[in-house]
Amino acid sequence: MPAVMEERQDSNIVLEKRPDLEGYSECNIVFTDISQGNTNRDRRIVVREPDGTLREGHWDERDRMNFLFFQREGQTYKMSSVLEDEHLENAFNRNGHVDVLDLVCVQCEPDSTDYIRVHQRTYEDLNRKRSFDLLRSTRHFGGMVYYFTKEKILTWLLVDILKRDLISDACDVVQLFHILHPSSKSAVISKQERLEGVDLVKVYVETEGPRGLLQFLEEDNKTLKSA
Amino acid sequence: MARVRKPSVVLRLALYGCPNRPFFHIVAGKRRAARNRYIYEQLGVYDPMPNEHNEKVATLNIERIKYWLAHGAEPKKSVAVLLGLAGILPVHPYSVEVARRNRENPVTDSGQDSITEDTEEQEE
Q1: Domain limits at A31?
Q2: Given CB 3.0 to 4.6 Å as the disulfide criterion, which of A45, A73, B26, B124 pairs with A57?
Q3: What is the reported pLDDT for A96?
């Protein structure tokens, strides 16, 4: 499962201020430490600005330098235009969700704005089209479930899972929901009554799901069983 | 009085690239050899031409630079200026002087670069 991280913030650490160096150069000078044993994330990258201050590199500069000197396979200097918002729809219409996610995993760092944005758009599109099966048995499925659980839009995913008779998977999803939202109603009830298995899903659908969903599911199950 | 020897290893900029496009390797080399000859180790690169984001790019293998400095290598002026700007060594007085000159009579075209190769002093 690809990493899920908080969005990163630029650090404005100023290492040195030298007003006497003002005007030395008209452009920034970027120094990258290429000593062995550093990873892309903890490498030292500093910038000397035209006004003489020496500061830590911002994330866009860091990404550029890391690309220049420590390129990953499949990464490109400029982000592919398919990852931009207006072109994402095109890829989604062709069911290219997995390819988009694979590409963004190579191209961007997991805490960059683009990485988080593309993942979010993809998951929302999948939820809208109810085509969760596209990601099933890829490495991105866990990330999708985590996102839906965090945003509390589990309904259609649960319906999809239950329709495929994957009861244990549904239980796991509900348990994840209880871990992420321990103060929610269904978490409290199931903790009090020490529920397990299908009861967990039932309690979750009753308390958190839309009204009538449980009935719908039960009827659906009957028809499935009789068929 | 005993004659003080200069260190035989220097850190210098070796010029690569092609006509109208300078590009430097930061190297540890033999003092008495020519600029691009007898290189013991490459320690980084320096690209003096600003890129599209208006920045000059330099890399430094700081671990190995420390090693060579500890073994008595002498950084030539160009490299000492770079190391000073990177915050590894104290700021070189020459870069302060260049900054003062640039402030006093600013040049409009950006070809005025302060770090050039060591063509001077082939002493001893």
Answers
A1: 14-70
A2: A45
A3: 87
